[in-house]
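Bit of a strange request maybe. I'm writing a small parser for structure token strings and I need a real example to test against, not something I typed by hand. Could someone generate the tokens for this chain?
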Amino acid sequence: MKRRVVRLTDTKNNEARLVPLTQAATEVFKQALNNPVRPLDCDLVFFGEPGRDGKRGPYAYTKLWNQAKKKAGLDDFRFHDLRHEAVSRLVEAGLSDQEVAAISGHKSMQMLRRYTHLRAEDLVEKLDKIIIN
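Reply from user aminoacidic:
Good idea to test on real output. This should exercise your parser:
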């Protein structure tokens, strides 16, 4: 937590990596790790109720996610869409492709580009800053 990074070991491509955390994300992790009802035998940060076998699995967010989507009127919206949005906003914020790939875990620039959807309105602002002679 002092370094504000999290080590992901169970990843899509089976390669562990360190991911930097924002200050807000670091606070969420601290609160979760200091949860007074956190079982001592559970190594999960966000844990759910014990299953039939008595072991705790990851927190199941599906019910709350679906409620939030319904309330917002976003029927055709998947949790994974947030990854596309985050990658696009990081690029627009000025992070390099390599920096964004280090955060998102994309192994190739081709896949990173597939996830990046820049807003034309933001490109207009950048174009206005270019001095063309």
